Amino acid sequence: MAASRWVRMGAAAGVVTIFLALVGLIGGFTDVYLIGDQIVFAGLMLVLPAFVAGLVAAAPRVEGGERHEMQLSEAMKAAAVAGAVAGVTFALAVVLADWIGAERIRTVFLNVSPQLMEFVNFGQATGPGALIIVAISALAGVIGGALRVAPRSVRRPVTAAVMVTLVFGFLQRVIPIALDQLKLERDWLYSPEFDGLTWIGAVVVGAVAAGFSVLNARFGERLRGGLARAGGQSGPAISPARLVAGLVGLALLLVAPLLLGSVISEVLGTVMVFALLGVGLNIVVGYAGLLDLGYVFFFALGAYSLALLTGATLNAYGIPPEPVISGHLNFYVAIPIVMVIAAAAGALVGAPVLRLRGDYLALVTLGLGEMVTVLVGSPWLVPLVGGPSGMRGITDAAIGGLAFRDPQRFYYLALAFVGLAAFISWRLATSRIGRAWTAMREDEQTADAMGISTTRFKLLAFAIGGAIGSLGGALFAVKIGSLTPASFQVLVSIQVLGLVILGGMGSIPGVIVGALVLVGLPGLLREFEEYRFLAYGAAVVAVMVLRPQGLVPNVRRSRELQDEERAQDEWAKAVEEGETSPEIATASGATT
Amino acid sequence: MSEPAPVVGIDSVLEVRGLEKHFGGLYALSGLDMDVRKGEIVSVIGPNGAGKSTLFNVITGIYEPDAGDIRYGDVSIVGLRPHQVVKLGIARTFQNVRLFANMTILENAMVGQHCRSKGGVFGSILRTPGIRAEEERIRERAKEALSFFGKRLSGYRLEQPAFSLSYANRRRLEMARALATDPQLLLLDEPTAGMNPRETLELRDHIVRMRDELGLTVIVIEHDMRVVKGVSDRVIACDYGQKIAEGTYDEVAHDERVIEAYLGTKTTDD
User: Fold this and answer.
1) pTM score above 0.90
2) ipTM of the complex
């Protein structure tokens, strides 16, 4: 019974490996070295599914509400079986491919290259190659299983070390630039020959990460208590690890473009534009609980209204738009007007969908967003917004002689706007308005019955979220300098929602982290560009399954998601303890 | 906040006339009349399905009536949205407790003060002195409302999430949240349901205190006859969406039609 489960898991992992090979994530990356000249990205992809299968196979099972922890020997057996089955499944596919002939398969699956076949056979003939695959997969499964059953004090530092090392490996084109800027020696850390980490570098990075993890586990709780007393707070204090991470992150955000040069600053500028959109959407989705899938509407509105207000040229005619609304305002004068327009549009768009909830609201807003894409690209609006060929010559937001088209300067402009939006969002969340939104999100009807005009506060959320989103659009226009409808696809809405969900709904640091992960990483790793949406989907699914509250959750939001079980436990405990006190005894004594 | 002992006068706070509410073919309310005077505690009793909760839902604007009128003071409140009704001074609790489970106890009560405050977007962003003062006032008023139930909802509990409360305390918090809206008329829908006998007795005293100390007019839907007997100035019995009897507890308790409604028609051999 249990064994069939392990086999199923292994087979699923094997199929995932086959999928990864077919989409080119293995064959295309045999020369992306992460550590030394041994650990390549393709190799990681090859064993990752088997590793995960081992991890999952060794996990405690929940049956009929009971949790069954596995014995060590059983867990190892489970992990080995799952890993080996994954290997066998993949090896069978490789043998089959060799038998048919890679060249013939390639007519259908473009990524089945001779390079891939050589890599998955480890340079051997078919038979021995298959055996190596099975052996390595079983090993990966066992490692996964061992990690799963290891005590927390071992699992945490090991996980931290491996994850951080891999991240350093991936950032092989980012960190060396920073080291060069700082005039630090880098050859010990990153191999000049293979680009990836050297083994010495990997060991050092891993050891430092593990060390931090151990320190946090040992002193974290005590520090947390100390911080709470120092701050005089009564609520749950922020953990020191999170505080340090926050401060380091903030410092890095401030110096990043100076260290990383203009190519990476370009990517970071896009990250900031998306972070701005995320902060805005977070108000609608995270605070007010209204699922909006048409957020691209405000992105487009901000970009195009800024272009019109500050004066741009229609690509179709080579002249500015005909109607009188085309102005020549300064960027900083235009921005408040753009925001007011967007807020009004938000309220206007919000009005017809007020009565809709959940899925229905999502569908209608999705449609509204799609309408914008069609509208700005329609031949009908060519005289106004340029239609399919778009507009160019948008302001560079200069202050005096200081223009912001340059990627590094643009980054700071965008960062300032993100800071402003985050501040507004935080102030609102912690005010009477934020309280009304929370109440509305938790129980709309009750909020109404307690005196909150849900109509008003829904419209307010749409309006403020829209105003911040339009800011993102305006900055995007400044960054690119030209606009075409291709930049305003429905995918923008999905991306922004994805980063809000990934980071943690209702959490502003979460939005920044979400933007860095979902927009920054694919931008930095150019060769992964075409796998961007594969990674997106995988990341969002993984977060929803493993950590529904997001990477950097908002405390209340995470409570809502774990609410039911927790509420029952707490309630049961409270009932057991009893709720009686002397006052009632006298009260009842007097009346009986 | 405390007012002298209530004067049961003639001035009606609430006048309900010919109220009807249908759900498809079901007549939840069919021509109900009732009056509530200032400073009274009126109990509404009746078997399940008699239309008691529907009456509350219509008064508070959750349902719109199909016919009839409800006057609160001098104005008709038919057609108002629930939040408008609260603002006029009518607060309620729900039969199945409906708290904002993930907000803290203090925040739940602070939501009650929402309709008595008006901090807007720009004030909240800039956090002007006026907004700070208002927020402070909301907090104090919410604490005051919570302190109506003694120590049960104050102290360290203020910052606890509402879901961590026991069942009885959830009911108390719901009442405190209603009190925090600064009402004149309070509608309590089965406030003692699910409470143990001791808690029920305690709550009975609280209901009386709401009138005596806070000067509220209270309408309470209740099944526990000890509570009805203990608190009511007047009892209104309903069945099939109509008033079938009205008067003091003793009058209503011995009314033929009330007994019939609860126990069914007498058999001939009785």
Assistant:
1) no
2) 0.91
